Structures are given as C-alpha cells and as structure tokens.
Amino acid sequence: MHNPKMKVIKLALASVFIVSSCSAFVPTLCKPESCNRFKSSLSMGVTLYGSQGSRSPLVNWGAYESGVPLTSGDLNRNPHPFKQIPSLTDDDGVVVFESGAILQYVYSKGEAANIDSASRRAAITSWIAWANASLDPICFLETPEGKVYDTGLKSPNKRIAALDEILSTNEFLVDGGFSLADVAVAAYLLYVPQFFNGIDLSMWPNVVRYMKQCAERPAYGKAFGAPVQEFLVSSLEGMGGGGEKKKLFGMF
Q1: Which long-range contacts (CB under 8 A, 24 or more apart) does 68-73 make?
Q2: Which end of the chain has fewer beta carbons closer than 10 Å to its terminal beta carbon, N or C?
Q3: Could you give the CA distance from residue 178 to residue 124 in angstroms, rounded to a whole number?
Q4: What angle do CA 106, 110, 116 make, to 5 degrees?
Q5: At 137, which helix (H) or strand (E)?
C-alpha cells in the first residue's frame, strides 16, 4: 500500500538533488552592485573625469585629433589620488592623472603612435613633457598655495623667444605636421588670452601665428566650444596672427 506522504517526500528530495547537481554547472551570480561595476569596467573603455572649466578640454582636443573615443566619467568616482581633474581610466585597471601623462596615453591609443617613426614619437613625448614642466609655469604664475595670480607672458621671456624662433621656420613643432605635441603646447598658450583679457603677445609674432592656426582647427572648437574658438581667433588676429613670415614675404 502506497503512502502518499512518503511519495511527496521522495519527489521533494529528488528535485533538491537535481537542482543541487545542476547548480554545479551554472555560473555563480554576483550581487547587482558588483555585476554593474564589472560590466561598466569592461564596457566604458577610455573614460575621462573632468569638466569644461578645467584642463580637461585639452585632453578632449587630443582625443578628437587622434580619433580616440572618450566616455565622460562620474566625478563622484574620480580615481585621481588627490581628487583633482582631469584623470583618466581604461580597461585592465589603467588609471592616468596629470594632463601631460593623460595626453601621452591618448597618443599611445591612437593610430598615429603605430605609424610615426621613433624620432617623431620621441619628439612628441618631449614636447608634451616640456609643456607641463616648463611652459605651464611661464603661462601661469602661482602663489605658494597654488593660486594663479598672473601670467609670465606679459614680459619678455627667453624660452618663449626661443619658441618663436623655432616657429619662424616651422609650421608646427614636430617634423611631419600637426601632432599632440602641438595640442600640449598650444593648449597652454591659448589659455592665456582666455584668462588674461587684453594681453598682447605681438612681441612673439610666430607664436601668435601658431596659436591662431591651432585655435582654428575644428577639433579645438569641438573640445573648447565655438564661442571660445571665435574669441581666440579674433583676439590673435588683432595681435598680428599672420606671423613674421607673412610680414617678410607679403606685399607690405
């Protein structure tokens, strides 16, 4: 005589056995928060943490010129060790901070880095480093607390004079045409007329020509915005944005 209760118990035990056996072949599921972080870390790719009012747009400019797509990151998750901007992340746990280092990383992700000669790559790296180490302190004079109070471009400067001499015979900084070296250097130079309205840089005509030429690039306008681009081009034109070459070889 069959006992209905025993039959139910046997069926229940069998179902438990089947489920527990099958679970060995089912991937372990993570908690929703962990899964989202894992998914985002794989899918976000190169992510920039910054704002339009910081130095972040120079990274955007470099990325547009290099054809490297960027995703905007949530500043609440900014990975910069000092919580400054800009900073950048990429797959495989990559974290980069300091604008020059970020620009160099963007360059490494672009197609040009695989095509450029060793000498051109070295020159680009050197100019990016120079922009951060030498040009930045000239463009922006800071107090010991790090607050900008003036620019060094209001007075004659040996380094800027040397740069002007270089640009008197070169359209851009590195042989082979425009590069991220120009993004690094021109970006700092172009910040000066933005922050110090009315400044006159005409003592360096080739630098002014160079700045204007870089500011006119479509990628610059896309990164910094059309109003900034229009203001700079107009201001630099008023300083004699044609450069010394135009004065030497023009009709007048």
Answers
A1: 68/106, 68/109, 68/110, 69/45, 70/46, 71/44, 71/45, 71/46, 71/47, 72/47, 72/48, 73/44, 73/47, 73/48, 73/49
A2: N
A3: 10
A4: 110
A5: helix 136-139
**Distance (Å) of CA 50 to CA 35, 70, 97, 247:** 25, 11, 11, 41
Are 109 and 161 spatial neighbours (Cβ–Cβ below 8 Å)?
A: no
Residue 136 CA to residue 116 CA, distance in Å, equals 26
Query: What are the C-alpha distances in Å from 248 to residues 131, 162, 168, 210, 240?
Result: 29, 19, 11, 16, 13
pTM: 0.79
pLDDT tens digits, residue range 101-151? 999 999 999 999 999 999 999 999 999 999 999 999 999 999 999 899 999
Residues 87-96: contacts with CB under 8 Å, at least 24 apart: 87/48, 87/49, 87/50, 88/46, 88/47, 88/48, 88/49, 88/59, 89/44, 89/46, 89/47, 89/49, 90/45, 90/46, 90/47, 91/41, 91/42, 91/45
